[in-house]
Every structure is written in C-alpha cells, then in structure tokens.
C-alpha cells in the first residue's frame, strides 16, 4: 500500500494490517498472543496522553493496555483483556511524511506493543520485529 493512491485507509484496513502483523510473529511468542485484542481509534485522548507523558495526540501511534506477562499472576482477576490500540491519524501522518509502507508502520507499532505484553526490552523488540520480515 502506498500513500499515493485513493483516500486514507479506514479502521477496517488498519485492523486487517494489525492482524496480518500478528500472523507474522514467530514462535514461541505467537503461542501467547491469544486474547490480545486490537482497537483502532483516531487519536489518543487527553487522559491517555497524560498517562504516558505526552502532550500532543500526534505523538502516539499505538499503546498496549494490560499487564505484561512477566507480571501476570493467577491472583489477578477482574482485569480487562490485554489490548493494543492503534491511533489512526498519527499513523497516517507518519505514513505520509516518511513514505514508509503503511504495512511496515503498523507492523512496527504492533510488534512494539506486543513486546510490552512480553515485557521485552527495546533491543529484544527490534529483534522480534526483524523476525517478522
């Protein structure tokens, strides 16, 4: 998908790209992704931005919501299922500004947020992203 044709991709396209990114995540990580849901919103709200220390909604392209597996406990109950939220407008802006394929941008964000699910370091997240190519 390039930034040169047609109108901006909608929510369904972002969801499909996110699910395609999940499908490329290798073992042993792939076996532990059940239950993670993907949501697409236009922008992060003010409360979310404040929680992550950002001021402007264009600064956040995605966010993992949930307890990392490294902190999981059988005693934790009543929590929402883990989810990844993609923020459509910031991703579209980055796609337009950089010329990077939209699939690659969404994969980058999904893998980064999956990395938070596993409690990975940035270096480990980069290695995981390389394995999805």
UniProtKB/TrEMBL annotation:
InterPro entries: Zincin_1, Zincin_1_sf. It holds the Pfam family Zincin_1. This is Metallopeptidase family protein. It comes from Novosphingobium album (ex Hu et al. 2023).
């Amino acid at each position: 998908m390039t930034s040169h044709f047609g109108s901006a991709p909608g929510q369904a396209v972002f969801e499909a790209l996110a699910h395609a990114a999940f499908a490329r995540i290798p073992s042993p990580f792939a076996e532990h992704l059940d239950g993670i849901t993907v949501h697409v919103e236009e922008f992060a709200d003010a409360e979310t931005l404040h929680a992550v220390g950002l001021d402007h909604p264009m600064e956040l392209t995605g966010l993992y919501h949930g307890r990392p597996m490294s902190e999981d406990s059988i005693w934790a109950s009543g929590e929402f299922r883990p989810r990844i939220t993609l923020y459509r407008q910031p991703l579209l802006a980055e796609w337009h500004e950089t010329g990077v394929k939209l699939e690659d941008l969404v994969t980058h964000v999904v893998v980064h947020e999956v990395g938070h699910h596993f409690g990975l370091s940035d270096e480990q997240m980069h290695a995981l992203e390389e394995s999805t190519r």
